[in-house]
Structures are given as C-alpha cells and as structure tokens.
Amino acid sequence: MFSKKLTKKLLALGAAAMLALAAAGCGGSDKADAPKEAANGKLTIAINATFPPFESVKEGTHDYVGVDIDIARYIGQKLGKEVTFTDMKFASLVPTLQSGRADMIVSAISPTDERKEVLDFTEPYYYPMKAIICQKGAGYDSFEKLKGQKAGASMGTTYVQELKDAGGIEVVELDNTPLVVQDILNGRLAAGLFDAAQAAVFISQNDKLEMHTLNLPIVYADTFAIALPKGSKDVATVDGILKEMQKNGEMHKILVKHLGETATKQYEEAIAKLEIAK
After folding, report:
1. Exposed, middle or buried by CB within 10 Å (0-12, 13-18, 19+), for 180?
2. DSSP character for 36?
3. How far is it, in rounded angstroms, from Cα 252 to Cα 60?
4. What is the model's pTM?
C-alpha cells in the first residue's frame, strides 16, 4: 500500500498541471496546440512540468517552478522577451518545436543523435547522474538486479531506452514520473529509472522508498541542453547566455535554490572532474 501523503502530493501535482493547462487554454499564450506568437517580444518555451526539481507546478498554484524554469526566464530577460510556458507530455516536446508552436525546449532534454537529426541543441548546461527508485528494502541497486523484473520510466525519455538496452527487464513507459513512482509504491513496478536529483525529491516525500545512484559514465547524449528548431540562428546566442550564467554565478544560484547547498556543492565538485564538462 502506498503512502497517502505522497499519493496526495502526486494527485495534487497532476491536478495542478491540468489546471495550469486549462488556464493556459483560456489565456491562449500557453496552449500547446496554439500557433507560435510571431511577435518578437514573445518567447514560447515547451516544458514537461512533471520533473521536479527541474520543472513542475507549485502545489496549490498554476505557477511553474524549477531549475529549467529559472534558466528559461533568465534567457528571456537577456533577450528582452516575455517568456510563456506551454506544458505537455515529454514525448510531445520535439514535435511541438518542429511544428513551430514553441521557440525552444527547456525541459531536461538530452541531445541524442536521433533528436539532433531534427533539432539543434546548445552545449550542455547540466550533467545528470541516474538513480533507481524502488520500495525500501528491495535493494535494486543495479540493472543486473532488475533482470526478470518490471521497471518503468517516463515516456519518450532516454531512461526508457537505457532500461531496454540493459536487457532482461520488462520496461513500462508511463506519461510522467509521478505515475512511475505511484506504480512502484503500488507494487505494479519493481523499480523506476530517474535523474538522481529528481529521485532525491521523491525519496524526501516518502519513507517507503529508497534510491540507488548508479555509478555510470556521463556521456554527451545523457546531458541536458536547450533544443531549438533545426537551422536556428539563435543557438550561438543562447549558448553565450548559458556560458555567462556559469561565469557570473547565476547558474550556481539557481541550482542552490532548487537542489540545496550540499547537493549543489557535491554536483559541482563531481562535474569539475568530468572531461566532457571542460
């Protein structure tokens, strides 16, 4: 039986996201199927707001919060544009950008070879670790231990493919990460694969869960970058803004705000040793 406290939070997150989408539909600017604003003063950002601490809907509000949200707003400020967010399933992000209904994706999206065929990406701004979440005491701390079990991840993410590539695991794709967590608590899944920072958020919300950070190499295709339309002339400009954020301490402030001082320090120390981050 899963925690009533976490179930309430997960349902609240889903309800808040639906309310936010409804509100966006009334206002017109955040609607996922609306045409992109042609005005130079608008910057439409596509997100999947079920991925704390990178993007989510603040409980009890329609407000988007998270690392990516603050990065997008900083970029908008530097470009002198008003930022609006359009929330959708993760699997819908790429086609939405391709169709011109958004100007960029700032949503923990990785620059895989497949995505690079149809989109352009900035240099990475975040180098994620990965973690398995399971019920406390289950001890699924490796892909090897998950063989013969059912494990899940959010649809359209690289985590789905990693579980499939491991072999011997029955992989389940769900619409968002809170649903993966709920199915772990219900016993429908043995485990799920997540970004480690996100996993820490879910673990902090429920004492029936445990997480195991995986000692895996971080490769370029696993990093988080900003996606823009293929052939965009703005890639270099956005890259410059991201580099400025690293140099002036703005990125550090955002990470501390959403990850905390200790986690940010540990992350920055680990990333400093990564060759691909240099």
Report:
1. buried
2. P
3. 27
4. 0.78
Alpha helices in the chain (DSSP H): 4-27, 67-79, 93-98, 113-116, 143-146, 158-166, 177-186, 196-205, 235-247, 250-259, 261-271
How many residues does this entry show for the chain? Answer: 278
pLDDT along the chain (278 residues), means of 10: 41 39 33 39 96 94 97 97 96 97 97 97 95 96 97 95 96 95 98 93 92 89 96 97 98 95 87 86
Q: How far apart are CA 102 and CA 263, in angstroms?
A: 32
Residues ≥6 apart with Cβ < 8 Å to 159:
130, 153, 193, 194
Three-class SS state of 219:
coil
